[in-house]
Amino acid sequence: MSFMLDEIREQPDWVERAVASERTGAAALAAAMVDRDIRFVVIAARGTSDNAATYAKYLFEIVAGMPVALAAPSVCTLYDAQLRWHNTLVMGISQSGEGTDVVQVLSSARAGGALTACITNSADSPITSVSDFTLLCHAGKEKAVAATKTYTTALAVVALLVGHVADSRALLDFLDRTPDAMRAALIADDAMPEAVLRFRYMQECAVLARGVNQATALESALKMTETSYVVAKPYSGADFQHGPIAMVDQGFPCFVYAPDGRAYASMLDLAMRIRDRAGEMVVFASAPEMLGLGVVPIPTPQAPHELVSPLVSIIPGQLFAYHLSKLRGADPDSPRGLTKVTRTR
Amino acid sequence: MSFMLDEIREQPDWVERAVASERTGAAALAAAMVDRDIRFVVIAARGTSDNAATYAKYLFEIVAGMPVALAAPSVCTLYDAQLRWHNTLVMGISQSGEGTDVVQVLSSARAGGALTACITNSADSPITSVSDFTLLCHAGKEKAVAATKTYTTALAVVALLVGHVADSRALLDFLDRTPDAMRAALIADDAMPEAVLRFRYMQECAVLARGVNQATALESALKMTETSYVVAKPYSGADFQHGPIAMVDQGFPCFVYAPDGRAYASMLDLAMRIRDRAGEMVVFASAPEMLGLGVVPIPTPQAPHELVSPLVSIIPGQLFAYHLSKLRGADPDSPRGLTKVTRTR
């Protein structure tokens, strides 16, 4: 029927497989990071993989205490900059393994003395040849052009790696329990055809989250933009309330991700401010108080812990984008203007 | 008449003053970075200052070869993470110097052994008390709520600092010649009331640039969102063409910043793809070939060099946002929902 819908549904199984398959690889990379005295991480990625990189930034910093920069590939590709890469892990994330600028960043960094690694769904792709360590997503072939299962499996591999780098038994335990929470999140599919109805003619919206779910806001907005051609603008809740909230007036649609955890209280504050401005909210949460603020509440199961909640929260977001695309008569499996491999120079 | 318009016009003078006043301070910080064997830079900022931080990332990496991370303040403020800050400069950018989460990041980093610095328009503000070095914008009091002159002066101070860190006489020379190019850019004001007319009812748009002018796309989009409540979505040209370009169809408005330099060729490619999809472009450029693709061409004077072009290119962008706001009956001096000091927890 639809590759995208099938692939959304398969995610819990692929995540389970990725975690089981890459334990040894993650441990080996973590050990190499100790050997090489790695203190700083730089991640290069584009599109959906760049959203996985945002998740990696939060997780590395919060759990492993290691500052993370997201690479601006053009620094290497357009400006030929030679960076000083001592004590740095440069990691590429690319589902196809063929993103030319990401490969170029890794190649340049490796020549400059960095430890390099990649997270990819394609063994033997170009990115693996410039990586000292390769971690695989094990997500099978992704047939829909809009990425879903390569996103969540990349998040899982990131969590696995950070769990080993920080030697955090707790994070690894949360991760092991995540696929079941993802399965529970799939039941949102039933209510989705009705939930998307009122957004048939939506032209623009804001997508909001904070903390580790910043990645969820970015990825949810990207899925809506790619498959339904909506101008969906992602924001950190913190940034949004100082300026951009100006665009919220009567009926302005805001998508709010607010799972339980450290970011919850500030998202609740923000949601109340949006309600005061008569904005219209789609709320992805498990707390009844938060759900009650949504004109469209999407109950989302609790994740084992906030740190792994992005793997769970994105599922209703993907389902929303899929059903909205169908409703609007678009083809979510092969949206206009989208190609699977990014070959930026 | 309007604080915002006055402040846009004053920018070349303030930039001149900032560069003249902070030479010694920039040299001192650069020397301290050598003493402390600084290899990485982390920048904390919100809103407009975060766009200045994006400029700083490109400049530090391209000219000084030093990897730069943009801080996610919630890592400190929500998750209480203790990062390892050895060999790291942590720099805050805040016009008011009172942004609570930015101050908290610096305070935490300083306690953890980082060298700290700030760029602010407010001497003796809280951020200066947690900074080992303070660089001032010297922009006078900013009366309009939408920031303009504190943005360009912050860019100037960044360029001054990087020029000293990299010991780049060339960059410092370009910077000295920038205020005159900014003055020339102000003449765009005359044509602007007519240029904005057709966008009276625009609801959403994309704002595009690449390389060092990524900051220009971000800041131009933010100004339109803040003062005209348009959903203006900034993109790197490289990211845009792999996915989000799906939203461009007949008449979809795209704002394209394409000054001369390394990023020009790829922006020209992108503009031709947008034209093929019948998107409607506002083009900020000096090259006639590029201007010819715009339904609204905004001729912009050449900057002394691409590396300082963001100080010049943003001026017509600010003027566009100002005149659009007036046309739509909004008050650009005090937009709804916007406050001058950001106090995120």
What layout of secondary structure does this protein have?
The structure is a homodimer of 345-residue chains.
Chain A: H1 3-35, E1 40-44, H2 48-64, E2 68-70, H3 74-77, E3 88-94, H4 100-111, E4 115-120, H5 126-129, E5 133-136, H6 149-165, H7 169-176, H8 178-185, H9 192-196, E6 204-209, H10 214-228, E7 231-236, H11 237-240, E8 253-257, H12 264-276, E9 280-285, H13 288-291, E10 296-299, H14 309-327
Parallel strand pairs in A: 1-2, 1-3, 3-4, 4-5, 6-7, 6-8, 8-9, 9-10
Helix pairs in contact in A: 1-6, 1-8, 2-6, 2-10, 6-7, 8-14, 10-14
Could you characterize what this model shows?
2 copies of one chain form a homodimer. With 345 residues, the first copy, chain A, is of the alpha/beta class. The first copy, chain A, has 2 domains: 3-167, Rossmann fold (3-Layer(aba) Sandwich), CATH 3.40.50.10490; 183-327, 3-Layer(aba) Sandwich (Rossmann fold), CATH 3.40.50. The first copy, chain A, is built from 14 helices and 10 strands. Chain A has helices at residues 3-35, 48-64, 74-77, 100-111, 126-129, 149-165, 169-176, 178-185, 192-196, 214-228, 237-240, 264-276, 288-291, 309-327, and strands at 40-44, 68-70, 88-94, 115-120, 133-136, 204-209, 231-236, 253-257, 280-285, 296-299. In chain A, the strands form 2 sheets. In chain A, strands 2-1-3-4-5 form a 5-stranded parallel beta sheet, with helices on both faces. In chain A, strand 9, helix 13 and strand 10 (296-299) form a beta-alpha-beta unit. The model of chain A has no long low-confidence stretch (mean pLDDT 94).
